[in-house]
Amino acid sequence: MATEQDLMEKIVSLAKRRGFIFPSSEIYGGINGFWDYGPLGVELKRNIKDAWWHDVVRSRDNIVGLDCSIIMNPKVWEASGHVVNFNDPLVDCKQCKARFRADHVYLVGYSPTPVPPSLFEEVPAENRRLKREMEAELVKAISQADKIRIEREFDELMTVNDQRLRPVLQKTVSATTPQEAVAAARLTNRQAKQIGNLPVSYVFPLTVLKRPEGGVWSRAFPRPDCPACGVPEALTDARKFNMMFKTFVGAMEDSSAQAYLRPETAQGIFANYANVLDTSRLKIPFGIAQIGKAFRNEINPRNYTFRSREFEQMEIEFFCHPSEADKWYAYWRDARFKWYVDHGLKSDKLHLRDHEKDELAHYARACADVEYAFPFGLAELEGIANRTDFDLKAHADASGRDMTYFDDQTKERYVPYVIEPSGGVDRAALAFLCEAYEEDEAPDEKGNPQRRTVLRFHPRLAPIKVAVFPLVRKDGMPEKAHAIWEACREHFAAFYDEKGAVGRRYRRQDEAGTPFCVTVDGQTAQDGTVTVRDRDSMQQVRVPAEGVLAYVRERLHL
Ligand code: GAP
Question: Residues near ligand 1 with C-beta < 6 Å?
């Protein structure tokens, strides 16, 4: 049976081979964390964005769209807190100059209950030996699947051998100082999840946590060796690294001209909240939606397009009365989860995870993640948060502009609360791609079963809806097929192909996820019918050539 890593490799290879996703600037060796979408990928992404826009903007009477500039006045990012808080902790190797995220080399043990400081000294020798062996194996393990297997085996061994060590190893957090470690250990599920995704060679070169003042449950470990060159004591203390990309506006390249590429689309919405309110007839509750690029200088982009440095977001800021915020939060949390199910993600692979209270950002009252079981693990597709009045108040304070809302019926003036469903287009595309991927068997021209790769996309998302073939390039078949293709492509993405054996043409369309293939054959000249082949059942039916458009539209709900 294929491992999850095999599966991911197959998906990445198919995506490259069939023109869904290419490494950016590949002819120059690529650039880490940046990806390009090819002809099929761009259609998939467009379909995702169109479906989202239709469902959250066009089909609702209280949500409008917005398209803000990517570079905004830097004061936006000061007011939002990004200049001060949008940080990752980094360590450098003084010897080989390699740079790592601190939480990739410094693992912090955390236990929900006090643990004696001597705990690690008490670990039986047998366990220490097993742990060393596992670390050695982990460094060698090249795949995520191997890593997960080794960790699971280790976990099982630890449970058998030393119950006391388990809680310490279960939860790991990032930290630059002992104080931060204590704080971070308290808000950690998300970070623990991130650590689960680390490149293996960085994960276990071991554990540093100085004992925090007054703390009882954590203790000091030696500074780890550099994960790259192995030199001891070469790593610097961790320092904060802001993840916003910087640029300069105008001819001067000094601090007065410095600006940022936006790390999220949300702040553009808050900055335009009053403009939209003044120019529309919207009344609370209402939402503003935006799709656009965001940029984050992630230290370790990973898991294919999942964590990129340039990506697209689909965000709604939904403004409501504070007393109704809980109701709207519950509404959006469920609506956004359902949206992914409706578009083909199986509910047993989707998970709606409510953040624990101690995981929430200080301004947020509630937050939930829609998570998907990717081949590399369960990971976030979209977050839904109750951001309270934090953002509008922050921008009102910093800009001096009035961000209140006046209800002319109740005569009440207040700063609205905001519910924010915030999703990633690239992550959605990756999830739909992973979900759609399947291998089965299909008969070849001689009726012999052959392995087939098929992308079972939801019809709304399929990059091409129908492909039209002439069986052979003669007897008027290409002309007839061309006419059907022309009729279809007026309405949806259609593809014409006359090269190669028809079985291979079917196979190519299966790999592209095309729901229907139409073939003009010898019988067409006699009775005016063509075959329509269904991607999933591989059944073929004869349909009048003139009826193909209606047949496809009806079945795809287009
Ligand atoms: N305005 C809130 C916000 O930006 P976030 O959880 O940081 O929240 C929202 O990002 C969504 O954007 C995520 O759920 C994910 O789908 C997408 N996203 C965030 N960082 C990403 C990255 N480095 N690569 C790809 N998508 C990312």
Answer: 264, 266, 296, 298, 307-308, 311, 313, 315, 380-383, 420, 422-424, 426-427
DSSP codes of every residue in 360-427: S-TT-SEEEEEEEEETTEEEEEEEEEEEETHHHHHHHHHH-----EEETTTTEEEPPEEEEEEEEHHH
Query: What secondary structure letter does DSSP report for 164?
Result: G
Q: How far is the CA of 315 from the centre of ligand 1 (A)?
A: 10
- Tokens 């054959």 appear where? 521
Smallest CA-to-CA distance from 66 within 348, 288, 226, 220 is with 288
CB 336 within 8 A of CB 56: no
What would the mean pLDDT of 343-348 be, rounded to a whole number? 89
- Residue 313 alpha carbon, nearest atom of ligand 1: 12
Least confident range from 60-74, 94-108, 225-239, 322-336: namely 94-108
Question: 295: which 2 tokens?
Answer: 């940029």
pLDDT at 391: 96
Distance CA 556, CA 558 (A): 5
Distance 83 CA to ligand 1 centre (A): 17
Paired tokens of 272: 């335009």
> pTM here?
0.80
Measured in angstroms, how far is the CA atom of residue 190 from the centroid of ligand 1? 13
How far does the centroid of ligand 1 lie from the alpha carbon of residue 284, in Å?
26
DSSP tag of 235: B
Indicate which atom in ligand 1 lies nearest the CA of residue 266. Answer: 1
Q: Determine which residue's CA is closest to atom 4 belonging to ligand 1.
A: 264
Distance (Å) of CA 40 to CA 15, 34, 37, 502, 514: 9, 18, 8, 21, 10
pLDDT tens sequence across 219-250: 333 456 676 777 777 877 667 788 999 999 99
For ligand 1, atom 25, the nearest C-alpha belongs to 307
From ligand 1's centre to the CA of 320, what distance in Å? 23
